[in-house]
Amino acid sequence: MKDYTPQIDAEMARLVALTGDPSVPVPTCPGWTLADLVTHVGRIQRWATHVLREQVQERVWPPQVPSGLPEGAKGDTAWLRAGAAALLDTLRGTDPALPVWTWGPDRRASWWAPRMLFELMIHRADAELALGIEPEIPASTAAAGIEEYLTNLPYAGWVTRRLATLDAEGATIHLHATDGDGEWTVTQGPAGRFTWERGHAKGDVAVRGPLADLLLVLYGRRSSDAVEVFGDRDFLDRWLSTAAL
């Protein structure tokens, strides 16, 4: 089983290096500054650590887990590093097959490592974009991130409830990478859920571009203008804005 901890460690170092001025606004997370982003990432990592260490079996959300911050306070880089260190130690010391609660389809401890990697990677990209830096994500990592996103998103009730309002059952989106192997087709299903499969297919809308851009478009960190779009762009933009994490 893949060990994600070296990538998580490297992503954390990259994020910490970007957070020198906590007052910088983060346009891709409207209303946030870099201080808010740091606080969010640190809380999410402490949440994952709590679930794994306590072998949590029932739903628990980040606000239910102590953050170590005073009421209303925001985290700083030392607090962020401490949370990341605890997460990494916990991931390394936890049996990947351990049954624990997750919000995705896989109820094992192994679900948490890739989820924490891509959560951190996207927020590192948020910080870079806020500072005018072009995010760099290796193509193979972006491909894995796309599949992690597509696998878990149908189980995010707060997203599927929004997708249900599109009234788009049966509509399809085809994703096509231009810098590596990667084609996926998303088919919108009932009640906002969707399915996906690998391979070439014709969709109501096709999205073509580098893997890193496809990942950032899916997460709402780039607009569809960053990639080639063929077909129903209006549906694509509505789907992306509704599904963005």
Task: Kindly describe this structure.
The protein is of the alpha+beta class. The protein is 45% helix and 12% strand. It has eight helices and seven strands; from the N terminus they run αββαααααββββαβα. It has helices spanning 5-18, 34-53, 77-93, 112-130, 139-152, 157-164, 211-218, 233-243, and strands spanning 25-26, 32-33, 172-177, 183-188, 194-198, 205-209, 228-231. The strands form two sheets. A five-stranded mixed sheet has the order 5-4-3-6-7. Strands 1-2 form a two-stranded antiparallel ribbon. Helix 2 packs antiparallel against helix 4 and helix 5 packs parallel to helix 7. The two termini are 26 Å apart. The model has no long low-confidence stretch (mean pLDDT 97).
Secondary-structure map:
Layout: H1 5-18, E1 25-26, E2 32-33, H2 34-53, H3 77-93, H4 112-130, H5 139-152, H6 157-164, E3 172-177, E4 183-188, E5 194-198, E6 205-209, H7 211-218, E7 228-231, H8 233-243
Parallel strand pairs: 3-6
Antiparallel strand pairs: 1-2, 3-4, 4-5, 6-7
